[in-house]
Amino acid sequence: MEYTSFETDKVIAGMENVRMDSARFEHVPGADESFAMLRIVRKYLSFGEQAEALFSLLDHLLKREGGQTAVFVRFFLSDAANQEAEVMRRWKDLGVVCPVSVIQQPPLDGTKLAAWVYSISGASVTRSDVLYKVNTAHYTHYWMVNGTCPEADSAHQTTALLEEYEASLRRVGCDLPNHCVRTWFFVQNVDVNYAGVVTGRRENFLGIGLNEHTHYIASTGIEGRSADPKALVRMDAYAVAELKPGQQQYLYARTHLNPTSEYGVTFERGVKVKYGDRSHLYISGTASIDNKGEVVHVGDVRKQTERMWENVEMLLKEGNASFDDVAQMFVYLRDTADYEVVEKMFEERFPMIPKVILLAPVCRPAWLIEMECMAVVREENVGIQPF
Prior knowledge:
Blueprint: E1 2-7, H1 8-11, E2 18-25, E3 33-40, H2 47-64, E4 68-77, H3 80-94, E5 100-104, E6 113-121, E7 124-128, E8 131-135, E9 140-147, H4 154-171, H5 176-179, E10 180-187, H6 190-207, E11 218-223, E12 233-240, E13 248-251, E14 270-274, E15 278-286, H7 301-318, E16 326-333, H8 339-349, E17 355-359, E18 369-378
Parallel strand pairs: 4-5, 10-11, 16-17
Antiparallel strand pairs: 1-2, 2-3, 3-6, 4-6, 7-8, 8-9, 9-12, 10-12, 13-14, 14-15, 15-18, 16-18
């Protein structure tokens, strides 16, 4: 993985106040991938000024850098009720077709917004029903973003979202058990509403044949909200159409973690998707937990961070990867007071990996921190089509 970092006022005139950290994977010419985290440098700017700076850099990245196509963007906002519509208006003005996820998860550096941009060379993006269709050389990738069903409770909303997602996959010849790679459930007031997400997802999965003896889906369930106060759950999801049996390897790290079904939830710790020329690893939201399902180091954010890193490292190792292969990190904190110590720890250990630290309480109050990440590994998987 090749890492770079710069602040735009030092490099690109007229696009002040934004820092971009990026990772680039290049193995086969014409099939490279880039992961960029865009963050505001000067937190005293108004939201309009911050948005103007960030979108100026986005316009430069998406339109003027040849060879790559943005295939997924996520905006992290400090106040969705007052910011979401403006972000989507500015995005529409760019005139770029791309799945765009927007969620209230305030950046903890004190700024009002940040963005993650995932780009692939040689890709094309079109809108297909509620899905976005991304074509690479040999695969068709489908993204769903900003799914909501703002009625009834969180269990009903989760069930309705999954049913709608499954129906959209069937319309393009896919299904959730065999083609869905990754989901995100953003839960308004996670301490109250996450239990409903667990119930709705479990019942849905049982109905389509997913259980502890088959597999679940890699996922993050975390605090996050949209501009609509009635939307208790917001869902993003990613699927790949041409995946064959065995192309997804589920990651467990059983020396450090237990199967999630042992404490009543239904997601995989991580998944490795094997392509002929590389593999993608998606590590689910991971916290300071042991192989009995117990929270480790209650009340100590430093030690919880270290144990969380150890757990993630074991998941990566099981997939023949390491932190050197990680392309991006999302870090979630429950308590804003923990930001400075956690930010220092991450900067010391992972100074170049694109990352953002967000205010987003985890599903158990005792977990002070959680992270997720994606890694890309160079591999030669015989008999599988390249990416």
